[in-house]
Amino acid sequence: LLMMTACADGRRRVYEIGDKGESWTEALGTLSRVWGNKQKRHEKGVGSGFTTATIEERKVMLVTLPVYSKPERDKEGNGKGRLHLWLTDNTHIVDIGPVSGEGDDEDEVTASSLLYKSGNNNEDELIALYEKKLIQPYEKKSPKPYENKKEGTGEASLGMVSVRLTEQLKRVKEVLKTWKKVDERVSQLCSSLLAQKVTSPENVPPHC
Protein backbone atom coordinates (compact mmCIF):
# COMPACT_ATOMS: atom_id res chain seq x y z
CA LEU A 1 0.00 0.00 0.00
CA LEU A 2 1.46 3.37 -1.05
CA MET A 3 0.60 6.95 -0.11
CA MET A 4 1.81 10.13 -1.84
CA THR A 5 1.94 13.45 0.00
CA ALA A 6 2.49 16.97 -1.35
CA CYS A 7 4.76 18.72 1.16
CA ALA A 8 5.24 22.40 1.94
CA ASP A 9 8.83 22.32 0.64
CA GLY A 10 7.58 21.46 -2.87
CA ARG A 11 8.63 17.79 -2.83
CA ARG A 12 6.36 14.79 -3.31
CA ARG A 13 7.03 12.19 -0.64
CA VAL A 14 5.86 8.60 -1.05
CA TYR A 15 5.26 6.31 1.93
CA GLU A 16 4.65 2.56 2.02
CA ILE A 17 3.16 0.31 4.66
CA GLY A 18 3.97 -3.34 5.35
CA ASP A 19 1.67 -6.31 5.82
CA LYS A 20 1.13 -5.60 9.51
CA GLY A 21 -0.14 -2.09 8.77
CA GLU A 22 1.32 -0.57 11.92
CA SER A 23 3.51 2.22 10.54
CA TRP A 24 4.31 4.10 7.35
CA THR A 25 7.88 4.22 6.00
CA GLU A 26 9.15 6.70 3.44
CA ALA A 27 10.06 4.95 0.17
CA LEU A 28 13.56 6.40 -0.02
CA GLY A 29 15.67 5.20 -2.94
CA THR A 30 12.63 4.36 -5.08
CA LEU A 31 9.75 6.84 -5.49
CA SER A 32 9.92 9.35 -2.67
CA ARG A 33 11.19 12.84 -3.59
CA VAL A 34 11.49 11.93 -7.29
CA TRP A 35 8.85 14.52 -8.18
CA GLY A 36 8.63 18.15 -7.14
CA ASN A 37 7.49 21.62 -8.10
CA LYS A 38 9.37 24.17 -10.15
CA GLN A 39 12.48 25.74 -8.65
CA LYS A 40 12.04 28.47 -6.03
CA ARG A 41 8.43 27.46 -5.47
CA HIS A 42 7.81 26.15 -1.97
CA GLU A 43 4.16 25.12 -2.00
CA LYS A 44 2.07 22.06 -2.74
CA GLY A 45 1.46 22.82 -6.43
CA VAL A 46 -0.84 20.76 -8.64
CA GLY A 47 -2.96 18.05 -7.03
CA SER A 48 -1.76 14.82 -8.62
CA GLY A 49 -3.78 11.98 -10.11
CA PHE A 50 -2.90 8.62 -8.59
CA THR A 51 -4.17 5.11 -9.34
CA THR A 52 -2.97 1.51 -9.27
CA ALA A 53 -3.69 -1.15 -11.88
CA THR A 54 -2.62 -4.54 -13.17
CA ILE A 55 -1.47 -4.16 -16.78
CA GLU A 56 0.39 -6.80 -18.78
CA GLU A 57 0.24 -9.02 -15.67
CA ARG A 58 2.24 -6.50 -13.63
CA LYS A 59 1.04 -4.36 -10.75
CA VAL A 60 1.82 -0.73 -11.53
CA MET A 61 1.08 2.77 -10.36
CA LEU A 62 0.04 5.59 -12.70
CA VAL A 63 0.56 9.21 -11.67
CA THR A 64 -0.18 12.58 -13.28
CA LEU A 65 2.25 15.36 -12.35
CA PRO A 66 3.71 18.38 -14.18
CA VAL A 67 7.00 18.30 -16.09
CA TYR A 68 8.73 21.64 -16.56
CA SER A 69 10.29 22.84 -19.78
CA LYS A 70 13.71 24.45 -19.89
CA PRO A 71 13.71 28.17 -19.04
CA GLU A 72 14.12 30.74 -21.73
CA ARG A 73 17.64 31.94 -22.44
CA ASP A 74 19.14 34.25 -19.81
CA LYS A 75 16.24 33.55 -17.43
CA GLU A 76 16.41 31.73 -14.12
CA GLY A 77 14.20 28.92 -12.85
CA ASN A 78 11.97 26.54 -14.78
CA GLY A 79 9.73 27.14 -17.73
CA LYS A 80 6.05 26.31 -17.89
CA GLY A 81 4.89 22.92 -16.68
CA ARG A 82 2.57 20.55 -18.56
CA LEU A 83 0.74 17.68 -16.93
CA HIS A 84 2.44 14.35 -17.74
CA LEU A 85 1.58 10.69 -17.14
CA TRP A 86 4.15 8.70 -15.14
CA LEU A 87 4.43 4.91 -14.84
CA THR A 88 6.15 2.97 -12.06
CA ASP A 89 6.19 -0.51 -10.55
CA ASN A 90 8.12 0.69 -7.49
CA THR A 91 11.37 -0.47 -9.13
CA HIS A 92 11.34 1.22 -12.54
CA ILE A 93 9.92 4.66 -13.32
CA VAL A 94 9.32 6.43 -16.64
CA ASP A 95 7.65 9.56 -18.02
CA ILE A 96 5.04 8.34 -20.54
CA GLY A 97 4.32 11.79 -21.95
CA PRO A 98 2.01 14.82 -21.78
CA VAL A 99 -1.64 14.59 -20.80
CA SER A 100 -2.81 18.20 -20.82
CA GLY A 101 -3.01 20.36 -23.93
CA GLU A 102 -0.18 22.63 -25.06
CA GLY A 103 -1.98 25.70 -23.76
CA ASP A 104 -2.78 24.16 -20.38
CA ASP A 105 0.29 25.01 -18.31
CA GLU A 106 0.81 24.24 -14.64
CA ASP A 107 -0.50 27.63 -13.53
CA GLU A 108 -3.88 26.82 -15.12
CA VAL A 109 -4.21 23.15 -14.06
CA THR A 110 -5.16 22.98 -10.38
CA ALA A 111 -5.83 19.27 -9.79
CA SER A 112 -5.99 15.98 -11.68
CA SER A 113 -7.31 12.45 -11.36
CA LEU A 114 -6.92 9.15 -13.23
CA LEU A 115 -9.55 6.52 -14.05
CA TYR A 116 -8.57 3.06 -15.30
CA LYS A 117 -11.03 0.44 -16.54
CA SER A 118 -9.60 -3.04 -17.08
CA GLY A 119 -10.70 -5.25 -19.96
CA ASN A 120 -9.64 -8.04 -22.30
CA ASN A 121 -8.54 -7.79 -25.96
CA ASN A 122 -7.35 -4.18 -25.62
CA GLU A 123 -10.73 -3.07 -24.27
CA ASP A 124 -9.19 -1.41 -21.23
CA GLU A 125 -9.37 2.38 -20.93
CA LEU A 126 -7.39 5.12 -19.22
CA ILE A 127 -8.95 8.54 -18.71
CA ALA A 128 -7.44 11.67 -17.17
CA LEU A 129 -9.59 14.33 -15.54
CA TYR A 130 -8.06 17.65 -14.64
CA GLU A 131 -9.39 20.88 -13.24
CA LYS A 132 -8.47 23.96 -15.23
CA LYS A 133 -8.78 27.68 -14.61
CA LEU A 134 -11.03 29.34 -17.17
CA ILE A 135 -10.86 33.09 -17.68
CA GLN A 136 -14.25 34.67 -18.24
CA PRO A 137 -14.25 37.85 -20.37
CA TYR A 138 -15.74 41.01 -18.93
CA GLU A 139 -18.92 42.40 -20.40
CA LYS A 140 -18.42 45.98 -21.46
CA LYS A 141 -21.15 47.98 -19.78
CA SER A 142 -19.25 51.07 -18.75
CA PRO A 143 -15.60 52.14 -18.80
CA LYS A 144 -15.33 52.29 -14.99
CA PRO A 145 -15.15 48.52 -14.29
CA TYR A 146 -12.18 48.34 -16.65
CA GLU A 147 -9.99 50.76 -14.79
CA ASN A 148 -6.62 49.20 -13.90
CA LYS A 149 -7.62 45.92 -15.59
CA LYS A 150 -6.60 44.33 -18.86
CA GLU A 151 -9.25 44.56 -21.52
CA GLY A 152 -10.75 41.20 -22.45
CA THR A 153 -9.83 39.40 -19.22
CA GLY A 154 -11.97 38.65 -16.21
CA GLU A 155 -12.19 36.57 -13.11
CA ALA A 156 -11.13 32.92 -13.23
CA SER A 157 -13.56 30.06 -12.79
CA LEU A 158 -12.85 26.33 -12.69
CA GLY A 159 -13.77 23.84 -15.41
CA MET A 160 -13.24 20.11 -15.80
CA VAL A 161 -11.40 18.59 -18.78
CA SER A 162 -11.63 14.89 -19.69
CA VAL A 163 -8.96 13.25 -21.88
CA ARG A 164 -9.01 9.66 -23.12
CA LEU A 165 -5.39 8.44 -22.92
CA THR A 166 -5.49 5.80 -25.67
CA GLU A 167 -2.01 6.43 -27.08
CA GLN A 168 -0.51 6.81 -23.63
CA LEU A 169 -1.97 3.45 -22.58
CA LYS A 170 -0.39 1.81 -25.64
CA ARG A 171 2.91 3.34 -24.61
CA VAL A 172 2.46 2.01 -21.07
CA LYS A 173 2.04 -1.53 -22.41
CA GLU A 174 5.09 -1.19 -24.65
CA VAL A 175 7.20 -0.02 -21.71
CA LEU A 176 5.99 -2.88 -19.51
CA LYS A 177 6.93 -5.43 -22.20
CA THR A 178 10.39 -3.84 -22.42
CA TRP A 179 10.81 -3.98 -18.64
CA LYS A 180 9.87 -7.67 -18.67
CA LYS A 181 12.47 -8.47 -21.34
CA VAL A 182 15.16 -6.48 -19.52
CA ASP A 183 14.35 -8.10 -16.16
CA GLU A 184 14.49 -11.58 -17.71
CA ARG A 185 17.81 -10.80 -19.36
CA VAL A 186 19.30 -9.44 -16.13
CA SER A 187 18.04 -12.51 -14.24
CA GLN A 188 19.72 -14.82 -16.77
CA LEU A 189 23.00 -12.91 -16.52
CA CYS A 190 22.93 -13.03 -12.72
CA SER A 191 22.23 -16.78 -12.76
CA SER A 192 25.07 -17.33 -15.23
CA LEU A 193 27.54 -15.30 -13.16
CA LEU A 194 26.49 -17.13 -9.99
CA ALA A 195 26.97 -20.52 -11.69
CA GLN A 196 30.44 -19.49 -12.88
CA LYS A 197 31.40 -18.40 -9.37
CA VAL A 198 30.20 -21.66 -7.80
CA THR A 199 32.07 -23.85 -10.32
CA SER A 200 35.30 -21.85 -10.30
CA PRO A 201 38.45 -23.77 -9.12
CA GLU A 202 38.73 -21.57 -6.04
CA ASN A 203 35.31 -22.74 -4.79
CA VAL A 204 35.66 -26.47 -5.59
CA PRO A 205 36.45 -28.47 -2.39
CA PRO A 206 39.62 -30.64 -2.50
CA HIS A 207 39.18 -34.36 -3.11
CA CYS A 208 40.05 -36.80 -0.32
Please characterize this protein's 3D structure.
With 208 residues, this protein is an alpha+beta fold. It has one helix at residues 166-198; strands spanning 2-6, 12-17, 24-26, 49-55, 58-68, 81-88, 93-98, 109-117, 125-135, 156-164. It has one domain: Neuraminidase (6 Propeller), CATH 2.120.10. The protein contains 1 helix and 10 strands. A hairpin with a 2-residue loop joins strand 4 (49-55) and strand 5. The N and C termini lie far apart (54 Å).
Name some characteristics of this structure.
208 residues; alpha+beta; Neuraminidase; three-stranded antiparallel β-sheet; 1 helix; 10 strands; 16% helix; 36% strand
Topology:
Layout: E1 2-6, E2 12-17, E3 24-26, E4 49-55, E5 58-68, E6 81-88, E7 93-98, E8 109-117, E9 125-135, E10 156-164, H1 166-198
Antiparallel strand pairs: 1-2, 2-3, 4-5, 5-6, 6-7, 8-9, 9-10
Please give a quick description of this structure.
Residues 1-131 form the Sialidase domain. 16% of the residues lie in helices and 36% in strands.
Beta-strand percentage range = 35-45%
What's the number of structural domains? 1
Any guess at the CATH architecture?
6 Propeller
Count of helix runs: 1
Return the average pLDDT rounded to an integer.
74
List segments where confidence is low: pLDDT < 50 over at least 5 consecutive residues: 146-152
DSSP, total strands: 10
